[in-house]
Amino acid sequence: AVLSIVNTSRLIIHLFQRQMLINRVRRQRKRHEDINSERGTDLSQSTGPRSLDIMVAMGHVDTVEQRFWARETSTDWWDRIVLQVWDESQWLRNFRMHKGTFLELCELLSPALKRKNTRMRAALTIQKRVAIALWKLATPDSYRSVANQFGVGKSTVGVAVMQVASAIVDLLLSKVVTLGNVQVIIDGFAAMGFPNCSGAIDGTHIPILGPDHQGSQYINRKGYFSMVLQALVDHKGRFTNINVGWPGKVHDARVFRNSGLFRRQQEGIY
Question: What is the residue extent of each domain of the chain?
């Protein structure tokens, strides 16, 4: 797969450089024509720029040496080091999960993340896309830094994050984030000294880039752009309900009153 990508990239680069040379020859020919037209010179019999133009197009003249294309992206770090060498502590520290959990997650997300190879490039593996997304979510690294780390383009990182996030929401959210057994949760809080408690709720601010429109609505009380995440957890700190999307300026009480959790409580469902 990697070899296919490299070969395809080299072909594209070769064609691109050839077109650049053709364009440069045509510009030179145009300048020669302009100069010689002032001198009354007939270029119809010239074997210079016109012939070179044709020779380049026919493939008889080599293109410019690929000096500035010499640096190729490497995926050795992911393929040979992370997957084959890293121990459990390194996985947990960098991806916030053990390798076994990571592989299980990839398997669960595979129905939504399968991609086919094309003539232009081989699709990134599911494991690599999930790893890119987890690394971006688990670290403060920039998109460019993550791209360099995994040997991919910066835009590829953004696409991977969105694809994996969408797959998690579509396939896992309703299965993983559930209200659970209320009585077990109440008993768990009671054992901690909090009787008749079925959950602990709070909000947090997720930093975002300021939107072009209504940006002031997203500036929270601490002065930065954010989106509010409201979360309910059980006695073990596991999420049992989440609500996300309100601008950072909105008060926690308003977020709660407009959440599905509040409506279910009012209806006596929870």
Answer: 2-58, 76-173, 197-266
Closest by Cα among 83, 216, 90, 196 to 150: 83
Bridge-based pairing of strands 226-233 and 200-207 is: antiparallel
Question: Mean of the pLDDT values across residues 4-23?
Answer: 51
Beta bridge partners of 205: 228
What phi and psi, each to the nearest 5 degrees, are found at residue 85?
A: -115, -40
How many H-runs (helices) and E-runs (strands) does the chain carry?
Answer: 12, 3
The one-letter amino acid at 225: F
CATH architecture of 76-173: Orthogonal Bundle (1.10)
Name the percent of the chain lying above pLDDT 90: 51
The CA distance from 248 to 228, in Å, is 5
pLDDT tens, residue by residue, 181-239? 889 999 999 999 999 999 999 999 999 988 888 889 999 999 999 999 999 999 999 98
pLDDT, tens digit, 9 for 90 and up, residues 42-92: 544 444 444 444 444 444 444 444 333 333 456 788 988 999 999 999 999
With contact defined as beta carbons under 8 Å apart, do 36 and 43 qualify?
Answer: yes
Question: How far is residue 202 from each of residues 40, 135, 242, measured CA to CA in Å?
Answer: 85, 26, 10
pTM given for the model: 0.56
Return the structure tokens found at 15.
Answer: 């064609």
Question: 107, 117, 112: which is closest to 5 by C-alpha?
Answer: 117
DSSP code per residue over 46-67:
--SHHHHHHHHHHT-S-----S
